[in-house]
Amino acid sequence: MTAPFRLVVLSLFVAGFIFSGCTGSASMGKASQAPLDSPANGSRDLFVEGSLSAVSGDYQTAITQFQKVLAAEPENAAVYFSLSKTYVALAVPDSAKYYAEKAVEFNATNNYYRHLLAGIYFDMKMFSDAAAQFEKLVAIEPSDTRSLFFLAHAYLADEKHEEALETFARILQFDPSNENAQVQSLWLELKLKRYGAAIHSLENMMEANGTNNKLQLTLGELYLQSGKPSKALQIFRKMIEETPSFVPAWIALFETYIEQGERELFLTELRRFYAIDTIEFPKKVEAVKLFMIRAENEPSYSGHVHSMVNELVMYQPDEPSVYVLRGMSLRVQKKYSKAQEDFQKALELNPENLFAWEELASTFMLQEQYHNVFDTVSLAKKRAGRSSLRLDVFNGYALFRSGSHLKSVRVLEKARSYEKQDAPSWLLVQAHITRAMAYDTLKKPEKSIEAYNDVLGIDPENALALNNLAYLYAERGERLDEAMQYAKQAVHAEPENPVFLDTLGWLYYKTGDYRKAREIIETALSMEPNEPEIYEHLAEIYRVLGEPVKAQEHLDKADLLRKENASQESKGKS
Asked: Which of 147, 232, 349, 503 is least enclosed by beta carbons within 10 angstroms?
């Protein structure tokens, strides 16, 4: 059984405590109170002057004065320590580390020097070295919880979770009520999947600090993970009895019944959930949506989700949103006709529901019924009195796929105005990519380049836009260095994509590296042997390499494939 999604959320919540109070100040901390190794009489005044300069913020003068003391006393640990602190203040970590190491070298028994060095190691992300220093400090003072905390954080940063957990356990031996150590121990037990230990830790926390709904919910989830569903159900039911409107407890209950195959109990409790007036209707809808998302990754949930929406329709037959939900559920099952009926029912109840119009258009899109998409968008504008970015993108894409390229770009140019609004980035990307492809078909490369740059302005790593923009530049023979970088990025993102490999190879041809171009495009052809353009590119490369026979063979193959493709298209239209 997979870990329930609420348990993952709790783990992330607990993880928020992990690094509190650890970073940034680790290299200063206790060391600022360090006692000094007394310098000789001749250097004392100079050392004091250096210390006063450092306190006043004149760090360069302080460094000069400390260096003069070192010239006279090259093994004075206190001066190395003071120099290290000065470089910490100047944010020069390498120098700070060097002088802290020297301070410890010349006085290994001074805990303040070692604390400073350990903190510098931590801030420099040298976590193993930091842990080694904190381990030595803890060996000297086993009950020093401050050093133990630093040690635990160093282990965590170094991803040594077992050692970190053991260290937090040592902290709790000296300070059993330390809530920070309790929370972090619990987080580690969850991460290490030690659910029995996590239950024990959580029960101790609840006993010491009191309980609340979140802690009880987590305890129930832990019982599920440790194979004790009856105890989990007992907790969830008790929570519902005490607070019937606490929706997370209901969700946990439903999930447990689904996981245990208790369909009848699931339906009984679901009906009780819908019947509770103190739970607002939107919260009931959100609960259904949550399980719909779950069903996308776990098909075993699909049947239960459909039951949830069917029951909701029975309880709220006059609410448009329940028909939209059921339509979405039916569409996932590819029952498109029934899904359309539900979307249309929702629109009968509320013709201004843009989301219902969008879902209806989406259903037609999935079936490639582009004329129905046009009609749906047109009706939406008339009956709702407005459109939406999603409807415009559907309309533009349907026009493009139907061959109405000029109409498509007109629609999608209007969609650009949505960029100033809070529109989903993925939808804007789709709008710009469709616009770019339409302009490319219309032989307007400047406009196509502009559209692909709009994509990269939103999603700089969009592989399709990177590839297509690179190819446009290659064909125009401009900005080839930039185009090469784009093509390499696209191939790095999708190394098995023959189209992307072809573009990269073609750019090597354009920049004069013909042998590299042949190698890459031959690889592309082995992956996609039915693409005429790849044969044409390879034919041109063979020509410039002085192999005319191979060049002609590839041109002939390209011509044959184009004729076959044209024949298939004409049959499809007829």
From this structure: 349
